[in-house]
Amino acid sequence: MQRRLYNKILCLLCVSSFALGGPYAHPAPYSRDTLAPHSAFESRREESIKKIRYNLLERFLSDKKTAQSIFAQKRFPPLPYGLTKDFLTVLDIQPASGNMAQTRAILDGIPVTLYFFLDRNAVKAEPDIGIVTEADISRARATGFWIAKTAPAVPMQQTLTEPELRTIEAPLSRIPAEEVKNILVYGLVDRIRFDPKLGEEIIMLWPLVSALHARYPHANIYVASQFPDVFFARHFGPKVIPVPRNMRDVKNWKYTRSNWDSFTLPEISEPRKAGARAAFIEDRKIDMVFSLSLARNRFVPREELLARNAAPPHIFALDPITLYSSALGPQMTGKPKPALYQDRGGTLYTVAGTEDIRRQAAPSDRLTEAGIWKWMIGAVRTLGLDVGENAPATLRLDISEAADALVLLRELFYKNNPAGVFDPTKKLIVVNVYAVTQGTLVTEDEWFELIATLVRNVGNAYFLFTHGGEMDADFMLIENIVEKVNKQVPGAENSMLVPQFNIYPHINHLLGIASGIITPDTGMSHLASGVYNIPAAVITTNSILHWMPPRENATPVIIMRHGELLRHYGYSPYSRNAVALLQGNFSFALGKIREFAEEIARAPERPEAVAAKIAGATYTERAELDQELLRHAVPQPHAEKDLLFFIKKTLDGLPMRDTLPRDLTPRIAFVDSAAQTGIGVPRFSAKIFTPRVDEPILLVDISSLETVTLPDGTEAQTVKEQTKKLDILHEIVGHLAARRLFQSFGMLHNPLIAHDDKTRRFLQTEEEVLSRIMHFIAAYLLYKNAGMSFDEGMVKKFQRLDAMTDFDWIIDLTIRYVAYLSRNECLSTYAHAEALRDPETAGKIKADLKQKYLLGIFEFFGVQGVPGLKDDPRRQFQPGPAEAAVGASA
Predict the structure, then answer these.
(1) Smallest Cα–Cα separation from 26: which of 154, 115, 164?
(2) List of E strands, 202-298
(3) CA-CA distance, 377 to 86, in Å (whole number)?
(4) Per-residue pLDDT tens over the stretch 430-448
(5) pLDDT per residue over 708-729, tens digit each?
(6) Strand-by-strand arrangement of the 697-701 sheet
(7) Cβ–Cβ under 8 Å, residues 734 and 772
(8) 704: which DSSP letter?
(9) Are 187 and 224 in contact (CB under 8 A)?
(10) In 10 A of CB 437, how many CB atoms?
(11) What is the C-alpha separation between 451 and 492, in angstroms, rounded?
(12) CA-CA distance, 146 to 138, in Å (whole number)?
């Protein structure tokens, strides 16, 4: 369709029956003979013949004079020859509304009704849907818009009346989970080029995709959405795969171009590109397609797939509930259709349960508070998926994502307060004042009062203002609000974070560590509350409460406007009663904000934020945490005795040179580090801590214990074998031995010797890499000489060490391994991942290992026969003196 046609009349063609009774015969196939000879409208493409009648009509109706005639004079002007010869006979025309006219006509011998829309601004979606039903026309008239551009590709009688379908309950429960390997989910892709809305996409996609991932954790789920960011969360691992919107996304997301060159979002979503969709479904071996598009199940080209001898997938089509609601009140503007299910054989079913959803979310066709969310959750449940009755799954960040967010928060603080000191004990509150659909709901002065009330009552928190989107208002709005708050609230200037760049690419991770948000009812409220389950104060009106998020911690803060006064109370906007009512309403809103703020102040911080702060804790902060653990040590006499025996036996089994000034056997204490994180994840399994000079203590987390049955039949606690061989051995012959052997690491942990932060971070990361190598060599020797057993992966590495001629591979392997552990498993070593991302840092560590440390390690362990290393002149082996060989927190 040419874009010039969008600026003229857009026509909706609806086929409907007159009340004459009797079924309609299937229309005869169109042929070129039905066209006027050499007509200007004649098609040169045989496959387009069935669309000729509508193309002619559209061309005719796009004429300006035709429009004036239809809508002003209410008469139909003469039709061109191509439309009068066996195509269309107009019977009469009747006005249907201010911008719509209705005609009765005969189209190729079949009675039809034509609806013509004058106002192109009423069209809010892709104008390429096709002939629709009478029910769709009712919906269009109620909501003010609908669309159509092409004639149907299905037989005419299927368009006239939807056939009776068999009903099926929970269809997914009938499909074996092991058969589902690849899934494709279409969001509201009809709006990709027109009016995409984050809130609607989140409501439609989040309950479905999160439930699918929970049901099929090993399946690949491809998500076609204009808003893919949330689906990159590590919560999903590599199994949820956003479809790139363009080739720039392919590059930025580090996809393989050859895999996506023909499969970007427009390619597999365009109505005319059935071939590309079929190719994608065939290439990815898609087993299921879920469509949330306006056109229901039009996105699965069965004929194309069958022509390719490819197996058609299971198809599920859900009617978008967002089409049936408005901002004028909770009354639904139509009746959503039941979900459709088509099996691989092509049999079509309606999914049972729509009436149950209606009773819960929209009794009497009036949506309840959060009714939009509740309806979509109910629709997902009818398919046979597990979703909370009133709320979907919560997205939680992993340690690396949360720590990255905390790093960004620190940077934002120092950009706003260069001379300040970042306080990691403060909570994070996100403040969003922008909303396209609710732009005039709150004035600047009202925003100031709302936010000032929040700041006063939350207390110990940072307040991060969102900004940078294309649709955000002038930045001056935020600056003015912040300036007023800083003047009126003592100490606020150290807590206001105003980014000078686009914050939205980072907002997902920041929301993941936030303790609360204040925002209008907009996409941000649905993302923060619906996805991340953050306590939310949602600025809204009575008319749109059905758009609220479904969470119990979402607080509606109702702001009344003049229009509501006139509509609900009949007050003149500037009457004395109106002014008093508005003032009373706003005072009540401030009270709701105060209650919301006090609740945030009382509540514990979000677990992800606590974990991030522990992962990113400074040397001093970690030492304080370890000291606290030591004060609350848990006695485990049998486990301690057993572990001391293992350490002595292991050290005796190693051919270490007697170069250490002291024994490597530390004092042992069992602790509960998971209690400090608040998320049930321990900070470590074991670590060396030296609270005082020359007093190393091995802290062992109680999560490393297991119950065993002793020979006398009693039960006792002991440290798991895997923990002994990996974590305990790493701490003893890795960290503790490194600090005893090398002055740089011994001095690093001496509390009497100062280091700048940069040097300390580098040496700690270098020590971690070195201690991993020392542990590997010790494990190798225990395996070869003492018969200690290890898992298959370690044994393969040992075999490679036997054939080693170059030590680079083990250094590279160890660096990658440390980065992996730091990002995935160990809270106490997360900072190493950030350091090792820097190629310069990783390169310097590698050079130091080869030039300073490796020869000393080999001599310590008595390793011989490593080509090119034994006589290396760069050897700098210096055992540390006793007074320098002290350690603290790893």
Answers:
(1) 154
(2) 220-224, 240-242, 288-291
(3) 49
(4) 999 987 655 567 888 999 9
(5) 988 888 999 999 998 898 889 9
(6) 667-671, 697-701, 686-689
(7) yes
(8) G
(9) yes
(10) 14
(11) 11
(12) 10
Query: Which conformational region is residue 87 in: left (phi greater than 0), alpha (psi within -120 to 50 degrees), or beta?
Result: alpha
Nearest to 87 by CA among 110, 113, 103, 58: 110
Asked if 264 and 249 count as a contact pair (C-beta separation under 8 A), the reply is yes
pLDDT at res. 831: 63
Q: Give the C-alpha separation, 525 to 539, whole Å.
A: 9
From the number of C-beta atoms within 10 Å of its C-beta (0-12, 13-18, 19+), residue 102 rates as middle
Amino acid at 509: H
CB 464 within 8 A of CB 412: yes
Amino acid identity of residue 219, one-letter, is A
Q: State both tokens at 193.
A: 């080029």
Both structure tokens of 594:
């105060």
Contacts of 820 (CB under 8 A, 6+ apart): none
Rounded to whole angstroms, the Cα distance separating 418 from 422 reads: 10
- Check residue 299 and report its DSSP letter: T
The whole-angstrom separation of Cα 292 and Cα 321 is 9
Q: What are phi and psi of 149, to 5 degrees?
A: -145, -20
What percent helix, strand, coil does the chain show, rounded to 5?
45, 15, 40
User: What are 598-630's pLDDT values in tens digits?
Assistant: 999 999 888 878 877 777 677 777 888 889 999
Pair 344, 312: CB distance under 8 Å: yes
Amino acid found at 579: V
Q: Which two tokens stand for residue 116?
A: 């013509």
Question: Which residue type, as a one-letter code, is found at position 843?
Answer: G
Residue ranges of alpha helices (H) inside 433-531 are 444-458, 476-488, 507-512, 523-525
Distance CA 44, CA 683 (A): 71
Q: What angle do CA 216, 220, 225 make, to 5 degrees?
A: 110
* 220-224: strand order across its sheet: 166-168, 348-351, 340-342, 314-317, 288-291, 182-186, 220-224, 240-242
Q: Provide the sign of the torsion angle of the four alpha carbons 630, 633, 639, 640, taken in this order.
A: positive
**E strand residue ranges, 216-334:** 220-224, 240-242, 288-291, 314-317
Name, of 96-105, 433-442, 556-565, the range with top average pLDDT: 556-565
SS (H, E, C) 441-469: CCCHHHHHHHHHHHHHHHCCEEEEECCCC
Condensed to tens digits (0 to 9), the pLDDT of residues 143-162 reads: 433 333 322 322 222 232 34
Distance CA 761, CA 738 (A): 16
Q: Is the dihedral of CA 513, 515, 520, 523 positive or negative?
A: positive
pLDDT at 373: 95
Strands 288-291 and 182-186: parallel
